[in-house]
Amino acid sequence: MARAMSSATRNNMRNAVGAFLHLHLHLHPTPTPHFHYSSFHSHNPSFLSLSPQQQQQQLTTPHLCASFSSTPLRFFTTTFSDNLPGETSDEGASTDGWEEEDTADPKIGDGGDGGGVALQNVPWGERAHSIAKEVLTQFTEDLELYAFKTTPRGYVYVRLDKITNEYGCPSMEELERYNQEYKKRLDEVRALGEIPDDLGIEISSPGAERILKVPDDLSRFKDMPMRVCYTENIEADCPEEDGVFLLDSIDKDSEICVWKLANVKENRDPLKKGRPLNRKQKDWRLKLPFNMHRMVTLYLG
């Protein structure tokens, strides 16, 4: 049987919406923040170590996360769970038994911030992926599989995207329910010997810095500032530029995006504190062919 665990500490969070209260249920730092806005106490060692009064205080304190952060749901099979209390890494540091996330630059289809599916030649990966898609049919049509990744060490990362949510953030209840249903189906298949016994699973929402596909994802986030890395020439050695823009329009026939400056601090004159963009800046437009976009992400200023 698998059991739930809290996630690691999410350090260096950047608040894209405003002030928020964050639930401290974490064990060690990991680099990628995710979306959601609820709490998760089940089987959390740090929570269970508190006095009854402290536990009650945490349970009754309202937790608001109006920014790009969350607590992914993780569960381990018995094999991993038995090793959790005293597991030690190769460097001698104590860990919680969870695999460190890949720190490579994200790219389209990497199974992480770039979305898509990355099985990494794991023999049981396709079966685990098919089950993840099968479980999703039990939910509303606006909930989609944003990214899926398996690793040779036996870890599965599932990221769910809620299309109707402004930031693509499923509710905590949806994440928990998916976690339960996915665990149930994996247990059934594991009993048949189709997948390993010792899998570690993380269920979360897309990362705050997920890569947006051009042009497919742009209209969905057209009212939000985006950081656009681009080049003005298709030559490989052409230097890249970047800026914070709002989408003005998309011409699919000519395959061109038209961008305008976003009214953010980065685009304002530092000598004129508090003043909005001037007329020239508001009228400025960047016409950029689809193939000259190098990377587009949501702006986290």
TrEMBL record:
Lineage: Eukaryota, Viridiplantae, Streptophyta, Embryophyta, Tracheophyta
Region named Disordered: 80-114
PANTHER family in UniProt: OS07G0155200 PROTEIN, OSJNBA0006B20.18 PROTEIN
Superkingdom per UniProt: Eukaryota
Domain DUF7912 intervals: 211-299
Name the record gives this protein: DUF7912 domain-containing protein
